[in-house]
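Table 4 source record.
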Amino acid sequence: MPYLRDTVFILKKEPYREHDRRYYLYGREHGLLIAVARGASSHKSKQAGHLEPFSQAQVMIAKGASFDKLAVAKADASYPVHRTSYLANYAVMGSFSDLMVKLLRPGVADERVFDLLQEAGSALAELPREPSADRSRLFLSAATLKLLDLLGFAPPVHASPEFTTPVQSLALVSFMRRAPLADVLRLTGQTDIFRAASAFVDEALKNTHLEREPRYAEAIYALLG
């Protein structure tokens, strides 16, 4: 049985059969990976604690005929584990990870995508203790725009009806494209400018191969009001 080894970022997990879990991972060397951890939903599982979403791990995956199996998983001690209790942070990273699963295809690896995941996860800890919905969405929009740039979907920046304040919004979109995500979180400005920039990214997503228009920011607004 062939095996592959990789350093992965855990994107999401979901129930699979009675006691198993299916994990969506992004590997530095192998790109998007989907594998099943047998018995991971049991309280006796030794692997589950090493495979929490938005963390990093070293894995060995056994290739199978019907599905791939997570044979070994060990949390990467060099990557900071998020111990925040702020639900908004999980909503932001969960939405971004879910978008990645929808946009990426297995078998195509890009280290820049892996680095973007690491950057987003690290910068997320810098969200304010009581973040606003607009600031959280701005962070998500900036991460999404960077991903679209890497995948070749991002459109050129130009004035559009979404920009109620064209000059400031165009400047913000350009800044979001090139600046580290941690710097985006430090921005201060008018709410309408933030929303216009986010609307630009929403419009860009319509030109991807998503099967339906994403509503990835709704969880943030539901949590923050």
